Amino acid sequence: MFYIGGINDDLRTEIHNALTERGLTSHMNDTKWYKLCKAVIEEMAFVPGYEEKYLLSKEPQPYLGNWARIPECALGLHIEWIKVYAKKVTHRGQLIEPLIEDHSDQFRDILIRLNIPFTEEDDLFVIYGHSAGVELPRHIKATA
User: Fold this and answer.
1) pTM value?
2) What is the rounded distance in angstroms from the CA atom of residue 16 to the CA atom of residue 78?
3) Contact (Cβ atoms closer than 8 angstroms) between residue 40 and residue 47
4) Is 44:103 a contact under the CB 8 Å cutoff?
5) Do residues 80 and 129 make contact, with C-beta atoms less than 8 angstroms apart?
6) Banded pLDDT at 118 (limits 50, 70, 90)
7) β-pairing, 119-121 with 124-128?
8) Distance in angstroms (rounded) separating the CA atoms of residues 9 and 36
9) DSSP character string of 2-39
10) Which end of the chain has the lower number of beta carbons within 10 A, N or C?
């Protein structure tokens, strides 16, 4: 079950004003956020953690939760960006190195298939809801 909610008119106006004042361009819409969340839930072997930055917040927020229960699934207007870590880390004790399962290829394939613009920085996928002066690459899945 997906989060059902939205934002009120006052918050929508505040977000619109922030977009205008900061000169931000939108890259995502409600449908793309919804499809991304749905694909992560239904197709990934695990739910990756991410950090998010809201338009009206000064600091990003860490979050390691259920993608089905987050506002982005219903409405992504307030998201400036999210940074997704597509690796599963399983701690096995103090003396044993953690087990790291890399699901980056699977996550990248989802982003490309859904035509979601993203960048990769270190081990993170950065998905911009809005940005200023950032030309995001359009990844096109090659047909075989």
Assistant:
1) 0.79
2) 9
3) yes
4) yes
5) yes
6) very high
7) antiparallel
8) 25
9) -------HHHHHHHHHHHHHHT-EE---HHHHHHHHHH
10) C
pLDDT at 143 over 60: no
Q: Is the CB of residue 84 less than 8 Å from the CB of residue 47?
A: no
- Give the Cβ contact number of residue 29 at 10 Å: 13
Indicate the pLDDT class of residue 110, thresholds 50, 70 and 90.
very high
Say if CB 3 and CB 69 are below 8 A apart. yes
Q: Which residues pair with 124 in a beta bridge?
A: 85, 121
Enter the tokens of residue 27: 């890259």
Question: Tokens for 43?
Answer: 């197709």
CA pair distance 82, 64, nearest whole angstrom: 12
Q: How far apart are CA 113 and CA 107, in angstroms?
A: 10
Rounded-to-integer distance, Cα 58 and Cα 71, Å: 19
